Amino acid sequence: MLDGEAGEGRLIAAGSDVLEPDAVHEVLVVGAGLIGSSIAWLLSKAGCRVVLIDAGSFGGEASAAGAGMLAPGGEYREPSPAARFAIESLAMYPTFVRQLEKESGLSIDYRKCGAIELAYERERWRELRKRADVQRRFGISAQWLCLSSLSAVAPGLNLEGLRGALYYPDDACVAPGDLLRALRAVCEREGVKILENSPVESIDAERGLVMVRVREQRISGRNLVLAAGAWCSQIPVSRSGVTTHIPESFPVKGHLVGYQLLPGSLRPILRNGHHYVVQRKSGFTIAGSSEEQCGFDRSVNPERISEIRNAAGSIYSPISMLEPTREWTGFRPGSERQGPTLGRVSGTNVWLAYGHYRNGILLTPATAHLVSRQILSASYKSQEAGSLVLAASIESGREMGTNERA
Ligand SMILES: Cc1cc2nc3c(=O)[nH]c(=O)nc-3n(C[C@H](O)[C@H](O)[C@H](O)COP(=O)(O)OP(=O)(O)OC[C@H]3O[C@@H](n4cnc5c(N)ncnc54)[C@H](O)[C@@H]3O)c2cc1C
């Protein structure tokens, strides 16, 4: 018998809850990363009975791999709906973390640590100053830093050849592993049924009902949220038996390198182009990263590691003398769309929540609130059985254009 499977054709969730084959659940969430589990949490708090299904273990993919920078300052250069969404999500973080800590009883390493963006060439410094002028106008605080103050703000920072530095005071960082532990605890507390090692093989939506196949067995729900990160478009979705196209998702592999330093030895995030250094409260210090489109190849490439070590060591001297204690990779969920795919597949109760690429940790609170609100506002309270039944007939939220193939 496999994990997640009980005898006599029944599936068994963590905590030994058996999923009865004929039961119709209120919401099925496919993918227990930060996105899926935070949506499951908010929906279950609102009274929905939720089943959270993952192909592997809870939070075992991109969400656990990520560096945990919450840094619109380094990501958004122009005003756009995506930038607004990211700024909103960053602003939601303190409350999101406080609430998770309170309800789970677990502590989360979250800090508004600020970020320093470095320029070692004149041209790059000119670009950064222009960028800061634009960012300030759409709500990202950015300040020029006096170079003489830098050694006090970030001891160990390489000042040689430095032309200028911008400070983003609102950028923050979080340990995604802490978030995942807390999310699992609150999901369990709210009665979410967690089904691990259970890859969803297909999704079929009929009017008012969505069915998934998991190892030749069927689970039914009134609504389904597809939050399987880089894997989403590998899962066939059909509407009344007809294949429905959803925006393509794909993996963008990233390498990261970890070092053990003294706790508190580096406060702000340091960034130079695609390279960065960020420290956890424990002193564990992460250097990143690479961006590679090479499918789902999990291997650690020594050349990429060496590039990251050199680049990170050239901006932050303490790690140039150290051997890493950990090297790892993860798959950012890329998408054919610019920005995350959030919305409903038209004519169905299938909701999409993926494609957060390199900002999924930052975008978790705003995504969880938006998607759960959309699902709840498409719902009504059933007097029968005293439970929340989600109605197919009430349209709400954004509908995704679909492209059907016979
Ligand atoms: C190297 C690296 C550095 C990063 N740094 C940052 C950062 O500093 N800040 C930031 O904001 N973001 C960062 N990210 C991005 C961030 O980690 C992701 O955007 C985010 O974790 C995506 O969360 P998710 O829940 O959508 O996906 P995932 O965490 O990948 O979760 C998807 C889940 O779906 C499951 N699944 C897949 N197929 C199926 C199936 N058929 N059936 C059921 N379940 C399935 C998987 O097992 C997985 O658990 C980084 C990512 C990487 C790789």
Give the topology, please.
Elements: E1 5-6, E2 10-12, E3 18-19, E4 24-30, H1 34-45, E5 50-53, H2 62-65, E6 69-70, H3 72-75, H4 81-104, E7 110-111, E8 115-119, H5 122-137, E9 143-144, H6 150-153, E10 164-168, E11 172-174, H7 176-189, E12 193-195, E13 200-206, E14 209-214, E15 217-226, E16 237-239, E17 242-245, E18 249-260, E19 269-272, E20 275-279, E21 284-288, H8 302-315, H9 317-320, E22 326-335, E23 341-345, E24 350-354, H10 364-377, E25 379-381, E26 388-390, E27 399-400, E28 403-405
Parallel strand pairs: 4-5, 4-15, 5-12, 8-19, 13-16, 15-24, 23-27
Antiparallel strand pairs: 1-2, 2-3, 6-11, 7-11, 8-10, 9-10, 13-14, 14-15, 16-17, 17-28, 18-21, 18-22, 19-20, 20-21, 23-24, 25-26
Helix pairs in contact: 1-7, 1-10, 4-7, 4-10
Describe this structure in words.
With 406 residues, this protein is α+β, with helices and mostly antiparallel strands. It folds into two domains: 12-63 and 178-248 and 337-400, FAD/NAD(P)-binding domain (3-Layer(bba) Sandwich); 111-173 and 250-335, D-Amino Acid Oxidase, Chain A, domain 2. Helices cover 27% and strands 31% of the residues. It contains ten helices and 28 strands. Strands 4, 5, 12, 13, 14, 15, 16, 17, 23, 24, 27 and 28 form a twelve-stranded mixed β-sheet that branches. Strand 4 (24-30), helix 1 (34-45) and strand 5 form a beta-alpha-beta unit. Helix 1 (34-45) runs parallel beside helix 7 and helix 4 crosses helix 7. The longest helix is centred in the first third of the chain and has 24 residues, at 81-104. The radius of gyration is 22 Å and the shape is elongated. The two termini are 36 Å apart. The structure holds flavin-adenine dinucleotide (FAD). Flavin-adenine dinucleotide binds at residues 30-36, 53-56, 60-63, 65-69, 199-200, 227-229, 231, 235, 254, 256, 288-289, 330-333, 354, 356-362.
